[in-house]
Write a structure and sequence with these properties.
This protein is α/β, with parallel strands linked by helices. The chain has helices spanning 17-27, 48-54, 71-84, 101-106, 130-139, 174-202, and strands at 6-12, 34-41, 59-61, 89-92, 111-115, 143-150, 160-167. Strand 1 (6-12), helix 1 (17-27) and strand 2 (34-41) form a beta-alpha-beta unit. The N and C termini lie close together (6 Å). It binds glycinamide ribonucleotide (GAR). Glycinamide ribonucleotide is lined by residues 12, 14-18, 93-94, 114-116, 128-129, 132, 182, 186.
Length: 204
Amino acid sequence: MGGGKARIAVLVSGGGTNLQALIDAQSRGEIPHGEIVLVIANKADAYALTRAETAGIPGVVITKKACGGDQEAFEDAIIAQLEACEIDLVVLAGFMAILSKRFTDTYPKRILNVHPSLIPSFCGEGFYGLRVHEAALAKGVKVTGATVHYVNEIPDGGEIILQKAVNIRPDDTPESLQKRVMRLAEWKILPRAVELVSAELVNR
Ligand code: GAR
């Protein structure tokens, strides 16, 4: 790329607290090598879109339903939007849709995901959101955490970039654990990983 800032798109589905952590880190100057220029939601009512609007970042809704329920058409619509905005780095921040190999091959080592466990525990298809924390509590593990990794065709299977551990308390519920993992791990390592990869891309 050579100089400048990596142009970042954040893909979201829901509340968008990880998007907010990125926006806040950016306004504190902690992502000097990147700039969030686009938010794409696959749910029209995602609160993340309000967060984007408040921060002055363009938000776009692309649903699979609007693409006739067709995965390929859905992914093509996302790729077209990413290309139109000349995106260098794609960040999945609570994006609850699985992307095909065709999609992930379009952006090799340019897609990051934040997952709410210490991969390879409690990850892969079916492990998302609160379910991850329910599974960790059901197993009785004493330590969990979060992982930021590159995205390839294997769900939660790409190279790990950063991880952070969080202790489980005896009185934790899935909800209390989810909140603590977000606050102590996800919101910290996601902005750091985004800056690390952005710096690598602009210095290439
Ligand atoms: C976060 O905990 C994120 O790690 C998780 O969903 C939540 C989204 O919250 N993602 C996954 O489980 C993906 N497999 P947010 O919308 O407030 O950022």
